[in-house]
Amino acid sequence: MREAVPDAPASCEEGICGSCELRVLDGTPDHRDTVLAAGERDRRDVIYPCVSRARSPILAVDL
Fold this sequence. Notes:
Elements: E1 22-26, E2 29-30, E3 46-47, E4 53-54, E5 60-62
Antiparallel strand pairs: 1-3, 1-5, 2-4
């Protein structure tokens, strides 16, 4: 993501602060952050891209 959007917001880049949160438009995120509680790991509306990835072939986000 840094290559595509070098100035994307991020603070800790470790998945703990949530400053890089992006809205998911399409696809399924693979949450690897510690921002979301265990019961929220199935959310498909947000992603913390500093550490999380896509479970689906394409993940569209709102920058």
